[in-house]
Design a protein that fits this description.
The complex is a heterodimer of chains A (293) and B (412). With 293 residues, chain A is an alpha/beta fold. Chain A is 35% helix and 30% strand. In chain A, the strands form 3 sheets. In chain A, strands 6-7-8-3-9-10 form a 6-stranded mixed sheet, sandwiched between helices. In chain A, strands 2-1-4-5 form a 4-stranded antiparallel sheet, covered by helices on one side. Chain A has a 4-stranded antiparallel sheet with strand order 12-13-11-14, with helices on one face. The radius of gyration of chain A is 24 Å and the shape is elongated. With 412 residues, chain B is mainly alpha-helical. Classes of the chains: A alpha/beta (293), B mainly alpha (412). Chains A and B meet through helix 2 and helix 3 of A and helix 1, helix 2, helix 8 and helix 9 of B.
């Protein structure tokens, strides 16, 4: 389990990350979202020790992270790039060795990862000769090479085609299945919905939400969909009901509690037929949109 | 124990085990080996090294050929006296270095002698005028070796015949005129060798400093520009990355230097000119040591320059101070003498060239190079330390190129 506690980082006058705390549980994928400039990359760089935190700390399994721990982390920085003029396999082996792998182990593992990305026969090619998408795959291989104990991935899916996204997802799931905590940032909310067990939302350097999907949904406003006939216009007059949207027979309303819901349903039944009355389960991306407004 | 810890332990043994894990090699060594391998596989580097090697060997062979090649002059004469002068010149030429020859073409008249020159049968015609003056006539030039050889022979010939006419001998006339030349330190022949060796030292240092210094700077800026350094920095301490680079390129520079030096010595041996190199061997040994120390200082500077730049293009403008230092070393090797050279021989980096040159030129007490080396070593340690600080801060910094002042203020 990876814990971030009260991390703070200022650049001159600007506080990029302000007292941010959250947890990345073992074996779970945690999505890290927020607008550009929200402080995601700065937080990830502090987790990786590339930037020094001015306050707060990072814990692994409850104890402060060390350089040796970090050497076992897998990291994909925001700005991509390996050695453009070096053969792919050579540089992966080099990175593996720096991550304490033996040369032969690094070589076989690199080859295995390249094959999973359909790049098995291009090991001797220079990185720059690959398409951008394929360079991205090599970058992913570099972060997974040393069988990391924690994965910190900054925008790992940007620039990948759907097939590559699927292989990446499969690879990440293999890691979470083995208990690895994965933190990844993304602007692709559909992917966040599809992949994440947890969500951490930053806004202007501050944490605005974090937790599992269920936890976040529990704190999200209660919304219900109501479909009645002949017309739903009357809901505007009901007390304790905030109308989000009314169109003909359909209404989306926000309610404070279950009692209000029961009262609304009873009122609807006295006014005509009720075709649908259901609680709306927000997606993580809707929660994100909600908290970052 | 959490699932995650279990996974990590299954992957790499107990968490308390040393960071070396599977791989016993220290990180700086892996970096060093990579620097060497990447450069060794670089075709451009291999070709330029090979071309330089060929040039060095060719230079030595050409030099040897030029120094043993005989000059042969043919001189048309129209008198017995002329014939004697040429014969005397030939004798002296053979005695002197054994490879200057004068051949006589005897003709019946002055005109016939000039005709020989005109038709290129002879290099020049030696003619005695009616008033006893001699004229040496060439077609459009008189080779310098020819005129000086014949001039000396003519002087000797005239001295001999005038002495005979006065009833004495040339030896008697010249008695007491011999001037022996000697040097308090070294000898004349060594001086010439020292000049050549000094030039070679200066130039080798200059070349290696730029080639391998630039290689370090480029290697640093490449990793910075491509952000690989962020991945590297999470795997190993940035200090080890810096040391690995400096060491790798220093090894390459030393190997190249040894190759060039070895090729030059081998070529000198094969061309039988080896007898002159005995005097430069000790200085060359010192040069290797000074080269190493001086290069370490420059390497630290180049690494800092690389870390301050944001793109490889920035290097050309930011490298001025280091280039100035390298030029100072080159200049000291080529031009400094006397007190200036003595001072230069204690200034780190410049001393890499200046001290070996001093040792070639004159006797230097043993403590002097040792003191100079200690100074250079202290400077190298200080600069590597400082370089590491700046490097660590600057190399993670994105955006534009940094100044030294800005880099020092950066927080990591």
């Amino acid at each position: 389990m990876l814990q971030v506690q009260n991390l703070t980082r200022r650049f001159g006058e600007n506080t990029a990350v302000d007292d941010v705390s959250f947890t990345v549980p073992s074996g779970k994928m945690t999505g890290f979202v927020g607008a550009n400039g929200a402080g995601k990359t700065t937080t990830m760089r502090m987790i990786m020790g590339v930037l020094t935190a001015q306050a707060g700390e990072v814990l692994v399994d409850g104890r402060p992270v060390t350089a040796n721990d970090r050497a076992t982390f897998g990291y994909m920085p925001e700005e991509r790039g390996l050695y453009p003029k070096q053969p792919i396999l050579d540089q992966l082996v080099y990175l593996g060795q720096l991550h304490r792998m033996s040369q032969s182990d690094a070589r076989s593992r690199a080859q295995e990862l390249l094959e999973r990305f359909q790049l098995g026969d291009r090991g001797k090619d220079k990185l720059e000769s690959l398409s951008l998408g394929n360079q991205q795959r090599v970058q992913i291989a570099a972060s997974l090479l040393h069988r990391p104990s924690v994965l910190i991935l900054d925008e790992p899916f940007s620039g990948l085609d759907p097939v590559a996204v699927d292989s990446m997802v499969e690879l990440l799931r293999e890691h979470t299945a083995q208990g690895v905590p994965v933190l990844f940032s993304s602007h692709q909310l559909d992917l966040v919905d599809r992949l994440c067990d947890n969500l951490v939302v930053l806004q202007k350097g501050r944490l605005v939400a974090s937790g599992t999907g269920d936890e976040l949904r529990a704190t999200a406003p209660r919304r219900h969909r109501l479909t009645v006939s002949p017309d739903a216009g009357w809901v505007r007059e009901e007390t304790g009901v905030r109308v989000i949207d009314v169109a003909g027979r359909d209404a989306v309303v926000e309610l404070d509690n279950d009692d209000d819901a029961q009262r609304l349903l009873a009122a609807a039944m006295t006014r005509g037929s009720v075709h649908e009355f259901s609680r709306i389960r927000p997606s993580l991306s809707e929660i994100y949109r909600g908290v970052s407004q | 124990m959490s699932t995650e810890t279990a996974y990590r332990q299954q992957q790499r043994g107990p968490a308390s085990s040393s960071p070396s894990g599977h791989n016993p090699q220290p990180a700086w060594l892996i970096v060093t080996l990579r620097e060497v391998m990447v450069k060794a596989k670089d075709r451009g580097f291999a070709i330029s090294t090979l071309v330089t090697l060929v040039l060095i060997v060719a230079g030595v062979v050409f030099n040897a050929y030029m120094s043993t090649r005989g000059e042969e002059y043919t001189v048309a004469v129209s008198s017995n006296a002329g014939e004697s002068v040429v014969a005397l010149a030939h004798e002296v030429g053979q005695d002197d270095d054994g490879n200057t020859a004068f051949e006589t073409i005897a003709t019946v008249s002055d005109d016939a002698a000039l005709e020989q020159v005109r038709t290129e049968g002879a290099d020049a015609a030696l003619i005695r005028g009616g008033d006893g003056t001699w004229t040496l006539t060439g077609k459009n030039e008189v080779p310098r070796g020819l005129s000086s050889g014949l001039g000396a022979a003519l002087e000797a010939y005239a001295l001999e015949s005038n002495a005979a006419a006065a009833g004495t001998t040339s030896e008697q006339l010249l008695r007491g005129s011999t001037l022996e030349e000697s040097l308090l330190e070294g000898n004349a022949e060594n001086q010439a060798v020292a000049d050549v060796a000094g030039f070679a030292f200066s130039f080798l240092f200059y070349m290696a400093s730029i080639i391998f210094g630039m290689a370090i700077a480029n290697s640093v800026v490449e990793e910075k520009q491509n952000r690989v350094v962020e991945i590297l920095a999470t795997a190993i301490p940035v200090r080890q990355l810096l040391y690995g680079k400096v060491l790798g390129n220093t090894i390459l520079a030393m190997i190249q230097l040894a190759l060039y030096g070895g090729a030059a010595l081998l070529a000198l041996n094969l061309t039988d000119t080896a007898d002159i190199i005995g005097s430069i061997i000790p200085a060359s040994g010192w040069f290797m040591v000074f080269f190493l120390f001086g290069f370490l200082i420059l390497a630290a500077m180049w690494a800092v320059l690389g870390s301050l730049a944001s793109r490889a293009e920035d290097l050309t403008s930011s490298s001025t101070p280091v280039m100035a230092l390298i030029f100072a070393a080159l200049g000291a090797g080529l031009f400094a003498s006397g007190q200036l050279l003595v001072i230069a021989s204690y200034v780190p980096v410049v001393s890499s060239v200046a001290m070996p040159i001093r040792m070639l030129n004159s006797e230097v007490a043993l403590w002097e190079p040792i003191l100079s080396l200690v100074l250079a070593l202290a400077a190298a340690v200080a600069l590597l330390h400082l370089g590491e600080k700046i490097y660590r801060r600057a190399v993670m910094q994105g955006g534009g190129a940094l100044t030294l002042r800005k880099a020092m203020k950066l927080e990591q």
